[in-house]
């Protein structure tokens, strides 16, 4: 059996490289050669031992681009040589969410790189139906950005797939907040205002064509009224997962506004539920994505509506995974998307 190198996190912050067998390709599977892996906030939690649903050892890697190297004899959706990205969800297909088109909410959801093996290896063997073919002219880097963009597309579509005439406020200018703002605009939003404290992330959002506010420098409510008019925002996206921004969302929402909860909360939020009731706010969670979100994400990128390049702040080789994490710890807000080149 052929061997390949795999990066294994044996304990928080400790990555070892091992020679492992390349699994055999089953009739409905493909083998892909990994090209790029993006590191996201959840990966960073795993690196710090702070991810509540991940045990060690773990093979990470869920934001990827890859080239199809081999296909099983029953595979019809892709061919050898195709550029693909892989949906990292492993679902049961039988529970209520799975049988009602909401497999991202599968009762026994496992995500590659967290509860099941991720893609940080030279090759990866996976069910072909998890692969989505990317346009030939899309770069490997951008292919690996489709996953976080799908998170953003899903979040915006939790409110509406057609944002024409809508006014949106995005709280948080990390990679997801930035991409939510870009997606809302791409889907037609009339106004998008992004609130963020980091000067670096504000500048990044501006480079991506997004209107911004720093609530430490300006009263946020005033800025919302100035951008959206006296009726404020139709929808507010909370993209950090902390109490202060959740409070802002509820306090500054118009009566009847929607609030989409995209951020991952590490702690309990204490929010004003009386305002949620009295102001008839719609509080909606958004978790990962489904295939249609990936397809929409690929379409938006192909249409030139998403700026990825500004978000990719650092690049490292496969053997430099740890350096990538160390850089994130050192650079903090200045590390937006760290990209691992699996061929270096
Ligand atoms: Zn991620
Ligand atoms: Zn299920």
UniProtKB/TrEMBL annotation:
Gene3D superfamilies: Medium-chain alcohol dehydrogenases, catalytic domain, NAD(P)-binding Rossmann-like Domain. It comes from the Bacteria. Residues 27-135 form the Alcohol dehydrogenase-like N-terminal domain. Its cofactor is Zn(2+). The keyword Iron-sulfur does not apply. Residues 175-302 form the Alcohol dehydrogenase-like C-terminal domain. Keywords: Metal-binding, Oxidoreductase, Zinc. GO terms for molecular function: metal ion binding; oxidoreductase activity. Pfam families: ADH_N, ADH_zinc_N. InterPro entries: ADH-like_C, ADH-like_N, GroES-like_sf, NAD(P)-bd_dom_sf. Belongs to the zinc-containing alcohol dehydrogenase family. This is L-iditol 2-dehydrogenase. It comes from Muricomes intestini.
């Amino acid at each position: 059996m052929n061997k390949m190198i795999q990066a294994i996190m044996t304990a928080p912050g400790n990555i070892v490289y091992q020679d492992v067998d390349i699994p055999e390709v089953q009739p409905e599977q493909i083998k892909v050669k990994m090209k790029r892996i993006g590191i996201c906030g959840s990966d960073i939690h795993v690196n710090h031992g702070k991810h509540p649903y991940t045990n060690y050892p773990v093979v990470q890697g869920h934001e990827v681009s890859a080239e199809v190297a081999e296909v099983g004899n029953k595979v019809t959706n892709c061919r050898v040589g195709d550029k693909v990205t892989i949906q990292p969800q492993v679902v049961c297909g039988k529970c209520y969410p799975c049988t009602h088109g909401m497999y991202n909410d599968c009762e026994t959801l496992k995500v590659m790189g967290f509860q099941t093996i991720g893609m940080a290896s030279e090759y990866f063997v996976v069910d072909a139906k998890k692969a989505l073919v990317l346009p030939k002219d899309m770069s490997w880097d951008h292919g690996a950005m489709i996953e976080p963009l799908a998170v953003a597309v899903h979040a915006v579509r939790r409110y509406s797939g057609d944002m024409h005439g809508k006014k949106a406020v995005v709280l948080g200018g990390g990679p997801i907040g930035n991409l939510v703002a870009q997606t809302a605009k791409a889907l037609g939003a009339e106004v998008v205002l992004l609130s963020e404290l980091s000067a670096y992330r504000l500048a990044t959002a501006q480079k991506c064509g997004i209107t911004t506010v720093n609530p430490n420098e300006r009263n946020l409510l005033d800025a919302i009224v100035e951008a959206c008019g006296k009726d404020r925002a139709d929808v507010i996206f909370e993209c950090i997962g902390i109490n202060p921004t959740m409070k802002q969302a509820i306090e500054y929402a118009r009566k009847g506004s929607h609030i989409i909860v995209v951020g991952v909360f590490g702690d309990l939020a204490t929010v004003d539920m009386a305002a949620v009731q009295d102001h008839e706010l719609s509080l909606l969670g958004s978790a990962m994505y489904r295939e249609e979100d990936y397809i929409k994400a690929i379409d938006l990128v192909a249409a030139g509506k998403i700026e990825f390049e500004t978000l990719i702040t650092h690049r490292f080789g496969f053997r430099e995974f740890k350096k990538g994490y160390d850089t994130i710890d050192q650079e903090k807000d200045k590390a937006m998307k760290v990209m691992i080149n699996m061929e270096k």
